[in-house]
Amino acid sequence: MRRIPAATLLLSPLVHAADAPPSKKAEAPPLMVQALTAATHELTNAIENGDNLNKTFAALATFSHSPETVKLLTEAFGDARPWSIEQRGIDKGRTSYQWLLKPLQQTTPAGGTLAWSGLPVDFGVDKSGKLLDYRGDWSSLSFEDKTARMMMARLGFNARQRRGAGNIWYGDMRGTIDSIVFEGKDSPLTIAMRGMDFNGKVVERARTVDMTQSFGIKSIEAAGEQVDDFRVALRVLNIDKAALVAMRAAEKKMSAQQVASKDDLSAMMPLFKAFARGATAHKTAVHLDEFSLRFHGHQAMMRGRIGLDPVPGNKVGDLPGLVKYINARLIIKVPVALVREVALAIARQQAAAASKAQPLAPSQDAAALGQSIADAMIGKLLGNGYARLENDVLVSSIEFRGGVLRMNGKKIDLPAPGQPADPAKLTTFMQARRITDSCTLPDYPAQIVAQDAPLALTLQFVVDPEGRLHELNLAEASGNPDYDSAVLAAFGACRFIPALQNGKPVQHAMTHTLTREPGSVRP
User: Fold this and answer.
1) How far is 408 from 286, CA to CA, in rounded Å?
2) Among candidates 444, 504, 506, 503, which has minimal Cα distance to 479?
């Protein structure tokens, strides 16, 4: 809702780390952060305090920072106004402006080098002075000191927004970053994030506001491994508009005073209560549409919803007590293959650290250790009822309601603060596993493949403690009797590794579903 210049978002952590003495990290922010924060605050206020953006942009052409901020900017950047703005023209009632953050090549007091290219942002304002569109393109930003370097390549963003009551901005914003790379000079650690995108949308309704946000990274590379297609997408629906405007005004007042007093915090309490009442009345909820990533081709996914059950009027003021009215449900799906890939990566890193050599290929020892780690992880999840197995995918349904946490319907007794979980109550279970090369399942029917049609059948069976198959039958037919019979005959020859309960082989009843995906020939 409140626009913060990209420069401030990206630079603050950098200059904070570069400029702060190692022994004084918790003290006052370094000079560069103070200068950026003060300048951003004054510019934001200048834009938001005006009723008409055309008048505001015209005033910015001669805008001067306060003497205190001028001093900070001059000491930090050698320039009392490291930005400029100019009107570019008027076309069909739309006035265009360009704001420019000047290029920088700066040595910090700690001896680091901070540099960025110029950042031009092109603005367009309609006749009403309420509708704003803007576009920016920042080609590079870098920081380097004796221990590390950081490089950003190509930040681009654009938006179309309308200012509403209470300086709430409605509309769309989107952006991309080609890459951000962190490199350690004293260690081989490199973290590279490539192909980032972010999107936001704020929609005004009669009495509520909806917000939608998403963020993604095409690839994250670190420690010789790569995570692909990381993405978060969520919606916050039915936010009480009046409460939002009131809280925005209070936040602005506190921001102007720089420090929140006890009186300010006390004054916020009625606003929090109003927000809670509005959330109950309008059924405000957070929808997590996607939280996902891929590792070695296997995707993990989480989805869900977090909302509030109706809160009694006399309970609205009890903010800690609102926890018992939270109504949340999340579904997490993680392929067993992904767990095994992660376990193998951990094992290879451990083996490499032990031998002081970079891993080139998984050794038998690393593979065995990885299998052991995966079995332990999966066994604890299944054995304690925290997950269930569906077609080689770990599935966990997490519910929180009435102050009670449940996983897959099982109540989880949370330990008291500072107290660890009781190991005696934990069990491990590892389901039986089919030895893949012990049997060959038949091809899908030729007619199904020719039509590229879907097909599914479910088998039901028992694996005894010796790994032998019993009670094999067809639980759900595919509609192709000859194929079903062929699958039953072939599956009956399969051998299994028995299920393990607390490390001991046990009998295990199972199901297995064969599902044909488009384009596939064999199961």
Assistant:
1) 21
2) 444
Contact 431, 510 (CB under 8 A): yes
* Gyration radius from the chain CA atoms: 29
Beta-carbon neighbour count of residue 356 at 10 Å?
6
CA distances from 121 to 4, 63, 96, 126, 135 (A): 13, 17, 11, 17, 6
pTM of the entire structure? 0.73
Q: What is the rounded end-to-end Cα distance, in angstroms, of the chain?
A: 50
Using alpha carbons, select from 136, 129, 204, 140 the residue that is nearest to residue 173: 136
Contact 129, 52 (CB under 8 A): yes
Tokens 């989107």 sit at which residue? 174
Helix (H) / strand (E) element for 496: namely strand 496-497
Is the pLDDT assigned to residue 295 strictly greater than 70?
Answer: yes
- Neighbouring-strand partners of residue 158: 135, 174
Single-letter amino acid, residue 349? Q
At 350-364, the pLDDT tens digits run: 666 555 544 444 445
Report helix, strand or coil for 231. Answer: strand
Output the average pLDDT for the chain.
Answer: 83
Two tokens at 502? Answer: 């607390």
